[in-house]
Design brief:
The protein has a single domain (about 35-155), classed as Glutathione S-transferase Yfyf (Class Pi), Chain A, domain 2 (Up-down Bundle), CATH 1.20.1050. It contains seven helices and two strands, in the order E-E-H-H-H-H-H-H-H. It has helices spanning about 15-25, 35-70, 80-100, 115-120, 125-130, 135-145, 150-155, and strands spanning about 5-10, 10-15. It has a two-stranded antiparallel ribbon with strand order 1-2. Helix 2 (about 35-70) packs antiparallel against helix 3, helix 2 packs parallel to helix 4 and helix 3 packs across helix 6 (about 135-145). The protein starts with a strand and ends with a helix.
Length: about 160
């Protein structure tokens, strides 16, 4: 099956960003996913950027340094995959770091789904040894995300 998976009555949904959007849409009074079309498009831009650029670059390290350690018989980290990650992640991380130079949050000047979507692969930052130390704005932003009640509660449950 697919993970993550949401079952809501007879409705089944997979894909993390789609699940996040759906849950926000069905939650009355939520303010994490804007209703205004342009504000929502701004958040969506970062959801797509994360899914297409940031998460795949992080995944090279996560798969090699985290997932392979969990799955018996998966083998040792592949140096060629780590090298690919070392090529792909820094320029993508730089995009985010530069964007955050004058911002507290990724979109709309407040915490949104964009922050959680982009932050998700960073939960493995230490174990995956993601090469992100040089990106101070990204590091400061991620510290703010980690300090949110939603992150603290979820991280504590892991």
């Amino acid at each position: 099956g697919r993970v993550p998976l949401l079952v809501d009555g007879d409705f089944t949904l997979w894909e993390s960003h789609a699940i996040m959007q759906y849950l926000a849409d069905v939650t009355p009074g939520q303010d994490i996913y804007p209703l205004d079309e342009q504000a929502r498009a701004d958040v969506n831009r970062w959801l797509f950027w994360s899914a297409c650029h940031f998460a795949p670059a992080c995944a090279l390290f996560i798969r090699e340094r985290v997932s392979k350690m969990i799955v018996a018989g998966a083998g040792a980290p592949d140096p060629s995959e780590i090298a690919r990650g070392e090529q792909q992640l820094p320029p993508v991380a730089r995009t985010l770091d530069e964007h955050l130079a004058e911002r507290t949050w990724i979109a709309q000047g407040r915490l949104t789904l964009a922050d959680f979507a982009v932050a998700a692969p960073l939960m493995h930052m230490g174990r995956a040894q993601l090469p992100l130390d040089e990106f101070g704005n990204l590091q400061s932003w991620f510290a703010r995300v980690r300090a949110t009640g939603a992150w603290v509660t979820t991280d504590a449950a892991a």
